[in-house]
Every structure is written in structure tokens, then in C-alpha cells.
Amino acid sequence: MSKHRIVVVGGGFGGLQTVHGLDGVSADITLIDRRNHHLFQPLLYQVATTVLATSEIAWPIRRLYRDRRDVTTMLDEVLGVDTEAKIVKLASGHQIPYDTLVLATGARHAYFGRDEWEKVAPGLKTLEDATTLRRRILLAFERAEMAEKTAELDADLTFAIIGAGPTGVEMAGMIAELANKVLPREFRKIDTTRTRVMLIEAGPRVLPAFTEDLSAYAKGALEKLGVEVHVGKPVTAITEEGVTVGETFIPCKTVIWAAGVQASPAARWIGSEADRAGRAIVGPDLSVEKDPSIFVIGDTAFVKQDDGKPVPGIAPAAKQQGSYVAKVIKARLENKPAPAPFHYKHQGSLATIGKRAAVIDFGKIKLTGGIAWWIWGLAHIYFLIGTRSRFAVAWSWLWIYLSGQHSARLITQKETLKDES
């Protein structure tokens, strides 16, 4: 009799945690991802802002499972799912049969119906996004060094980050640090401390998921770094020449999108009911109501908490869901009682502002400043994969802390000032 076939789509936090939790189960597991690496997304912005190298936050998936003979890794893209035939359809033309399917396909950028903004205002979800943003940030200073007109210089040295969640706040703080602390001695014609970094949020405050006091602290810390915080007015237009906030046009050559996400099309693949963000609505055991052989987790799933709010789309939540689904599958295969319905345990919210300040919300315990920054750093190092990565990231941060210099200031991809698209 053939083994039970489990297909996991997505090599992010949720997908890997599912595979990890299935270790020792009598099943054949196929892990499919369109990239060959697992990415530690919480530190992606540090690649974009020249702090870390790509190899320090990404690991080849095949290497992670080289000792797991039950796991087959496939580099391919899923185009759809035939739920009646129980087949996953791939871009290569292959069709992968399954008995149990776990969709952990993450999310992508959402431009609220203005998809034409994506070309001039890229977001940050992949290593390619990070190196693209790093290139644009560094090239902005290179263009400014050669600018002959004041208007051109000002536009080149203006950066707009749209969205003031953790990613936007962290990006704004690090770009300000780069301009004010790292680059001033390296350019001859321009004064990089004249750089204008704008953080733009349509809502009333930055870090809206945090408490108001932590939000106020973050705003003050950003302003101490020289970041202009604009709240209460949405961006109404983005072009290659700049951004329009409300009715005010601001010349700006570098725009970064951190305002919203849209779930992958996984819900459409399986014909599942979805929320406005495209997340598949799942039941208490994270399976699809009409087909209990399909589970959806992470940013792809709408999981309702006891208070009616959805589980947040963050790494710890995806990992908890992956562990839970593995337990459900294992119980089914071993004919044991199913575990209790999934319950998300919030472990705290963290965001850093520059290299010496952060905010942490552990519920009853709230921290700010330098001590919060150290705890934030230790937490992120702990969740990295492998001793080498933990050591490399810790060393990079220590070097920056002591020397004030970023070591990953490389302009890659198309290395010209004329063609940046």
C-alpha cells in the first residue's frame, strides 16, 4: 500500500514549520516553491538598506532537508489545483497528486487598485525586491553627486516611504541613518545629511497595531533621526517625478511601498470563500470547510481569533499554524483524536527605529529605546536558521554598532544610472 501523499506549497515560515512538524510521520512529502530558498522576511529591509547581505537571511531549501528522505523539494510555480482529481498543476507542466494539501503561499504587494504604481514604488517581499530597493537607494545618491540643478539634487535626495507599519518605520529609520551617519564622508559634491526622508501614512498614526504610547514614541524617535512623518493624508498619485500627498505634490525620485498586502491566489485555486484581501477563510482546524483535505495557513489564510479579529500576518503566527496543521495531519494518519481548535498565542510585537531604538509590546510589558533594541536583535538572531547565520548577522550588527559603517553597499542587477527598470 502506497504512503499518504502530502503536498506543501510554499517554503516560508508556515510551510517549513509544517514539514518540520511532520518529521517521523509515515508519508511522502513534496515541498513546492518557486524559489529555491527560504527567506527570513523580518530582516529583508536590512538587505535593502545595505546592512546585511542576501546570504545572511536566506537558506537553500534543499540543504534544509538533505537528511529528510521523506521530503522531495520541487522548484516550480503552482498555477492551480484540481480539487476533484486532487492534483496540483505546475508551470512546468507537471501534475503532483496529493492526499493532503497545505497551502502556505504568502502574500504580495497590494496597491489598492493602482497597480500602475508598482513600477515606480516597489514593495519588499523577496530578495529581488530587496536588491532592487538597495540599488535604487544607492543610485539616488550617485545621481545626486552628478546633479547640475538644485531641483534635480533635491528630488534625488528625497525618499518617500508609503505606509507606516513596522516595515515602513524600519525602512525610514535605516535610510535616515544611512544618509546622516554612514555616507557623509564618502561624497565630495553633495551633503548627504540634506537627505529628506518622508514616512507617509494615511491613518492617524505610525505603527497602528501598537498602543498609542508606543506609536508616539516611535514617531518621536523617527523625527530625532530627521524623518518627516506625514499622517492623516493618503497618497493620491505616484509618478517617476514624485508623489502627491492629498493635494500636495512632492518631487521625489525614490518611492518605496510598504502600505498593504494581498494574499496569493490560493483561495481561487481551490474555490474557497475569501475575505477582501483574498485570504482563504478556514475553519477552526485551519482546513477548508468544503474540503478537509486542504489546509491554508499564514498570510494566505483568514483565521478568526476569539475576539473576531483575524490572526495577524506575521512570522510567529505562520509558524504556530504550521505546527498545528502538522499535528492535525499526524492525528488523522494515526487515527487519533484531533487536537483542540487552533488558538493563536501572541508573543509580542516588535519594531526597530534606526540602530539604537526600538519598541516592544509584550502586552503588560512595554519597552522602548536601547534596551528594546537589544531585545529585538536577540529575538531575531534566535529565530534565524543555523549557527553560521546567527553569527554572521550578530557580527554585522556589532560591526555597524561599533564602526557606524554598513558593509553591504553593493549596486547589483542593472548597474547603470540610465536604465533602472
Topology:
Blueprint: E1 4-9, H1 13-21, E2 27-33, E3 37-39, H2 44-48, E4 58-60, H3 61-64, E5 71-75, E6 78-82, E7 87-90, E8 95-97, E9 100-103, E10 107-109, H4 127-146, H5 150-156, E11 158-162, H6 166-182, E12 196-201, H7 212-224, E13 227-231, E14 235-239, E15 242-245, E16 248-251, E17 254-257, E18 261-263, H8 266-270, E19 280-281, E20 287-288, E21 291-296, E22 301-302, H9 315-333, E23 349-353, E24 357-361, E25 366-368, H10 369-383, H11 387-403
Parallel strand pairs: 1-2, 1-9, 2-5, 9-21, 11-12, 11-17, 12-13, 19-22
Antiparallel strand pairs: 3-4, 6-7, 7-8, 10-18, 14-15, 15-16, 20-21, 23-24, 24-25
Helix pairs in contact: 1-9, 4-5
Quick structural gist:
By secondary structure, this protein is of the alpha/beta class. 31% of the residues lie in helices and 25% in strands.
How far apart, in Å, are the first and last alpha carbons? 53 Å
Q: What are the segments in which pLDDT stays under 50 over at least 5 consecutive residues?
A: none
Q: Which oligomerization state do the chains in this entry correspond to?
A: single chain
Task: Tell me the strand percentage band.
Answer: 15-25%
Characterization of this structure:
The chain has 421 residues and is α/β, with parallel strands linked by helices. 31% of the residues lie in helices and 25% in strands. It has 11 helices and 25 strands. It has helices at 13-21, 44-48, 61-64, 127-146, 150-156, 166-182, 212-224, 266-270, 315-333, 369-383, 387-403; strands spanning 4-9, 27-33, 37-39, 58-60, 71-75, 78-82, 87-90, 95-97, 100-103, 107-109, 158-162, 196-201, 227-231, 235-239, 242-245, 248-251, 254-257, 261-263, 280-281, 287-288, 291-296, 301-302, 349-353, 357-361, 366-368. A 6-stranded mixed β-sheet has the order 5-2-1-9-21-20, with helices on one face. Helix 7 links the parallel strand 12 and strand 13. Helix 1 runs parallel beside helix 9 (315-333) and helix 4 (127-146) packs antiparallel against helix 5 (150-156). It is elongated and about 75 Å long. The model has no long low-confidence stretch (mean pLDDT 93).
